[in-house]
Design goal:
mainly alpha; 2 strands; 2% strand; flat
Length: 242
């Protein structure tokens, strides 16, 4: 069982990660590069933006650098062009394998028939828990956006993911009115608490560009999760048939 989970996730994650990288180049990457132009202009003009962050991966929307401007000035970063593309592709493959492992393990533990179609349904659930629900409070942000404190954002993100995943499990795998009410209430809890917000809104990037990035990131993430789900379900079914 473990060997099948592992090899299914490796194959699905690798192919999914490669797919992420291709789709990423035509969706979010051009927006990120455009946003970095505004960010560099804002930095060189003397406007320091605290708590800047941006994410290059549409699959995992997590808070990263607490001060991206400072990181760019003092830390190492891959050079633009081929080097940056290669590092991004490698990161996407690792992310794809990691999430495929979680996806395949959950499908196996559920004890229900697994194929490409059911895999897509699991992928949609993964997208809802990992990307869609947290984006209601912490939408994907381009470099140059003002954000709240890093620890608070990450804590709320993990709370939202755990609550959404558990709530979906209650709705799908449990029956009865009490389970339904409890699942809905649990999914709503992080949003009732509210995601941490910056002291003031704004940043170096125009809001139109930031909105475009958020929409493109979520649309791309939905595609990727469905791809991971279908690949995982298909490879599992073929391995089971042997």
């Amino acid at each position: 069982m473990f060997r099948r989970i592992f090899f299914t996730a490796i194959l699905a994650g690798f192919l999914g990660g490669m797919g992420i990288s291709i789709v990423h180049q035509f969706t979010t990457t051009p927006i990120i590069l455009h946003a970095e132009e505004f960010e560099s202009k804002g930095t060189t003009s003397g406007h320091k933006h605290s708590h800047l962050r941006g994410t290059g991966s549409p699959l995992l929307i997590l808070a990263d650098s607490k001060d991206a401007a400072a990181t760019d000035e003092t830390g190492w970063a891959p050079s633009a062009g081929l080097e940056r593309t290669l590092y991004t592709t490698f990161a996407n493959i690792l992310s794809g394998i990691g999430f495929a492992l979680i996806l395949v393990a959950c499908m196996a533990l559920a004890g229900r028939p697994i194929n490409g179609r059911t895999g897509v349904l699991w992928g949609i659930a993964g997208f809802a828990a990992i990307n869609l629900a947290p984006a209601l409070g912490l939408p994907p942000e381009v470099p140059g956006a003002l954000t709240a404190e890093l620890g608070a954002r990450q804590g709320w993100w993990f709370l939202c993911v755990a609550a959404t995943a558990t709530g979906l499990w209650m709705l799908v795998f449990r029956s009865g009115t009490l389970w339904i009410v409890a699942g809905i209430a649990l999914m709503a809890l992080p949003h009732i608490i509210g995601a941490p917000q910056p002291a003031r809104m704004g940043g170096a990037v125009p809001p139109e560009l930031a909105g475009h990035f958020a929409a493109a990131s979520l649309a791309t993430a939905a595609i990727i999760w469905c791809m991971l789900g279908w690949l995982s379900g298909t490879f599992w079914q073929r391995a089971e048939a042997k």
